[in-house]
């Protein structure tokens, strides 16, 4: 009889897994719960149900399932999944504890090492994440993805020479080439090597022309090279893809204003404000534009009066301009 029950549980789990992989979470849960009615402490079922709940962002319910499974057997996969729960609950210490337990029980788990590296990276613990990515590249995978993660965190630590060496190793492979060239361009841009940055970002855009990060970096490089028209071209390309990309439109307006194109800047800022009337950056630069144009100064003063009391990055600048206008 026990063998029959175990077979039923395994069959229900297998059916649930197929449903889960096809995105049918509700039916998968039904299968797992049927299995738990037969065997309430079967750890595989508890883990599988926890995975569905994790996908549904029901983190506390998922936590309960994984803990119950671990109460039966200390399986590295269950620790890994419990770590995912805590990562999503923004409890990094608990996530780290469970990821470390997972790799302790299964040191060959690439997924566990990747999860640990991603956790450290997300929380800006770059010294730790660099060690994880190095371990992965040296012992598990030479894929470009992991080299790029290593380079990203070396850049965050301003270890530019090391980062360039890692990116050089990743160059020439089929996958993630836009990222290789993007971060190469970013390093050169950070070091004021604008010509090299321009060459690298063009290679990134040749691979993936619609990549927003690459276009934004390309625009910044053009500005550094005093090529406003080319910078505008990159911003306009992105605005064709998404007319309501307010960040890009405001960045374009700020550059136009800095180069004396006040009316064009004002038109871009007015568009953003018409769609997002609490966009602080757009409001601040509209007030500044009106001041420079010496037009509609009461409106500029009104905007600054509002901005000088808010909790945002432009508060102090707004207060200074408001005081200047009140003299």
From TrEMBL:
Q: Which InterPro entries would you find in this protein's record?
A: TPR-like_helical_dom_sf, TPR_2, TPR_rpt, Ycf3/AcsC/BcsC/TPR_MFPF
User: Keyword set for this entry?
Assistant: Repeat, TPR repeat
**One Pfam family named in its UniProt record:** TPR_2
Q: Where are the TPR repeats?
A: 9-42, 76-109
Q: Which SMART domains match?
A: TPR
PANTHER family named among the record's database cross-references: CELLULOSE SYNTHASE OPERON PROTEIN C, TPR REPEAT-CONTAINING PROTEIN MJ0263
Task: Write the protein's name.
Answer: Tetratricopeptide repeat protein
Taxonomic source organism: Mariniphaga sediminis
């Amino acid at each position: 009889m026990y063998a029959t029950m175990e077979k039923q549980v395994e069959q229900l789990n297998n059916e649930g897994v197929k449903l889960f992989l096809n995105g049918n979470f509700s039916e998968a849960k039904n299968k797992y719960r049927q299995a738990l009615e037969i065997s309430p402490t079967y750890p595989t079922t508890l883990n599988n149900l926890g995975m569905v709940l994790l996908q549904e962002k029901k983190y506390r319910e998922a936590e309960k399932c994984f803990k119950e499974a671990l109460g039966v057997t200390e399986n590295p996969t269950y620790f890994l999944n419990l770590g995912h729960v805590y990562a999503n609950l923004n409890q990094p210490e608990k996530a780290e504890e469970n990821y470390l337990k997972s790799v302790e029980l299964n040191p060959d788990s690439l997924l566990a090492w990747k999860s640990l590296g991603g956790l450290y990276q997300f929380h800006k613990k770059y010294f730790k994440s660099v060690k994880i990515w190095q371990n992965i590249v040296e012992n598990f995978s030479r894929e470009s993805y992991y080299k790029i993660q290593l380079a990203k965190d070396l850049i965050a630590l301003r270890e530019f020479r090391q980062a360039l060496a890692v990116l050089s190793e990743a160059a020439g492979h089929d996958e993630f080439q836009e990222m290789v060239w993007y971060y190469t361009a970013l390093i050169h841009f950070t070091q004021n090597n604008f010509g090299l940055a321009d060459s690298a970002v063009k290679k990134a855009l040749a691979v993936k022309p619609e990549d927003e990060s690459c276009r934004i970096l390309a625009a910044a490089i053009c500005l550094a090279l005093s090529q406003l028209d080319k910078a505008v071209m990159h911003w306009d390309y992105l605005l064709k893809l998404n007319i309501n990309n307010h960040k890009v439109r405001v960045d374009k307006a700020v550059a136009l204003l800095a180069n004396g194109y006040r009316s064009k800047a004002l038109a871009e800022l007015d568009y953003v404000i018409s769609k997002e009337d609490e966009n602080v950056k757009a409001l601040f630069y509209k007030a500044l534009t009106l001041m420079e144009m010496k037009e509609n100064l009461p409106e500029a003063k009104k905007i600054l009066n509002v901005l000088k009391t808010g909790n945002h990055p432009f508060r102090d600048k707004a207060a200074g301009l408001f005081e200047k206008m009140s003299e």
